[in-house]
Design goal:
Strand content: 5-15%
Number of helices: 9
Distance between the termini: 30 Å
Oligomer: single chain
Strand order of the largest sheet: 2-1-3-4
């Protein structure tokens, strides 16, 4: 299926938020508190005429989506990028074309496309800073078969969630990572 067809199948921001049953208030809280810096806004305004669109592969229960999606929405607003959400578990045919490390259905994944449906950039599921934080925390867990593994893992997820909800430096690293992806893909040239 052409990427434009996938885009057309997606939910608008409002439809996605309306359907959310997990993490809705938390995601909206980050959305309300996060603000782009002036340099980022200037760059994003310059790429408006590219008429980009973005397909978001996501699920509302996902902790990474909880923190990444509101940042993406702010970026999309500043760049006038039309956003459509596809639920990962209902769209595995597309998801399986964007596996993390070739094996994982990690989300969210952002597929930036032009008006003709050509892929221009892909981002996800985490910024490098966030990935390093998660890897550091996971390295401290006991072995999977240890009696206290599940308890320690649950505690780790709770700590990460708290950081996702409150650490503005994480939000800034996500914005930097997404915007850097757009810059690397030459979307700001030839204006």
């Amino acid at each position: 299926m052409n990427l434009n067809n996938w885009f057309d199948k997606g939910l608008t921001k409002d439809q996605y938020i309306e359907k959310m049953s997990v993490n809705k208030d938390e995601m909206l809280s980050i959305y309300e508190r996060f603000h782009l810096n002036e340099d980022d806004i200037t760059f994003l305004e310059r790429i408006q005429e590219k008429n980009l669109k973005v397909i978001v592969l996501s699920e509302d229960w996902c902790g990474d989506a909880l923190v990444n999606n509101p940042i993406l929405l702010k970026i999309a607003e500043a760049a006038n990028i039309d956003v459509r959400f596809l639920l990962r578990d209902e769209n595995l045919e597309l998801m399986d074309q964007y596996l993390t490390n070739g094996t994982s259905r990690a989300i969210p994944i952002y597929i930036f496309i032009d008006q003709d449906g050509n892929e221009k950039a892909v981002w996800g599921p985490r910024s490098q800073k966030l990935q390093k934080l998660v890897e550091k925390e996971r390295a401290q867990l006991p072995a999977n078969d240890a009696p206290d593994f599940e308890e320690k893992q649950a505690s780790m997820y709770k700590q990460l969630r708290t950081a996702y909800l409150n650490d503005e430096s994480i939000w800034e690293s996500i914005a930097y990572s997404i915007i850097s992806t757009l810059k690397r893909n030459d979307l700001h040239h030839k204006l």
